[in-house]
Design brief:
The chain is an alpha/beta fold. The chain is about 25% helix and about 30% strand. The protein has a six-stranded mixed β-sheet with strand order 5-4-3-2-1-16. It has a six-stranded mixed β-sheet with strand order 8-9-10-11-14-15, with helices on one face.
Length: about 280
């Protein structure tokens, strides 16, 4: 395992079609690889961001037919890099309990190796069903089928825990990823502006401190074709909770850093909280 890792987060403003998503993100990935990044991460909804229900069904494909997913797998192989497609919104191909087709999509992270092979998949566990104080309402469960399992994947630099966006609010998930050996945790996101401004950096730093892991958070940013606004501010947090690198805006960009993977062991040795769990009686 190498102790140093040149990493890049890609901040995007993904269009409403997979072809547009690929055309948007590909030049940024190429630039990151040319700059020396060996592991590149993209945000939630890298292939397509479209929440208008009358248009959404027509722009989604199965994972193995999605233009952006296929193009990004080829690109990883061409560039010889590890690539985390932070998430692709794809048809789930699942059925409901009553046997009927479940027309909800999967919000799926895909880890791609330098041969272009998918080595890990993770479907977002926690869907974003909220009523924000500013009047915005989101019901992700209406269009996205939640996953049912946590995932930790192997990379040449250590194990990677996979999460997506709203998962950041569930510390027990991140703790389990760390206990399963994750030294890095990915948090690809399309955070809303109100929640991003209030909570984004605080939550990222908290999850890093609690787990003693690097937290890698590539984000969507700006006004999208479907009318939503996202917060941007892609961020890399060290295992002691320090901000290593971040974007201070919501424009498409690349955030880079060199990670010293030995910092994970040092943080966990200094505060070995992952080994201090105790059973306790339930709240009465």
């Amino acid at each position: 395992m190498s102790s140093g890792l040149d990493i890049a987060l890609i901040q995007t403003r993904t269009p409403a079609t997979a072809a547009g998503g690929l055309a948007h993100v590909e030049p940024l990935i190429r630039e990151a690889a040319a700059g020396g990044a060996r592991f590149i991460l993209t945000p939630e909804g890298t292939n397509v961001l479209e929440q208008r229900r009358d248009l959404r069904a027509s722009v989604l494909s199965e994972e193995d037919a999605d233009v952006a997913v296929l193009g990004l797998r080829r690109l990883a192989a061409e560039l010889g890099v590890w690539l985390l497609i932070g998430s692709a919104i794809v048809r789930s191909g699942r059925t409901r309990q009553d046997g009927a087709d479940d027309d909800r999509a999967a919000n799926r992270s895909l880890l791609v190796d330098p041969r272009g092979a998918i080595t890990a998949r993770y479907d977002k566990l926690h869907v974003f069903d909220v009523d924000l104080p500013n009047g915005e309402t989101y019901r992700e469960s209406a269009t996205v089928r939640p996953g049912d399992g946590a995932v930790v994947a192997d990379t040449p630099w250590g194990r990677l825990g996979l999460t997506i966006c709203y998962d950041i609010r569930f510390p027990h998930l991140h703790r389990q990823l760390a206990k399963a050996g994750a030294s890095m945790i990915a948090v690809p996101a399309a955070f809303t502006v109100p929640t991003g401004e209030a909570h984004w950096e605080t939550l990222l730093r908290a999850r890093a401190i609690e787990t003693g892991a690097f937290v890698l958070a590539p984000a969507q940013g700006g006004l999208h074709e479907d009318g939503r606004r996202t917060w941007g501010r892609s961020t890399i947090v060290g295992p002691w909770g320090e901000i290593i690198a971040k974007a201070d805006h919501d424009e498409p960009c690349i955030v880079t850093a060199k990670l010293n993977m030995e910092a994970v062991g040092k943080a966990r040795s200094a505060v070995p909280a992952l080994t201090h769990d105790r059973d306790f009686l339930p709240v009465s």
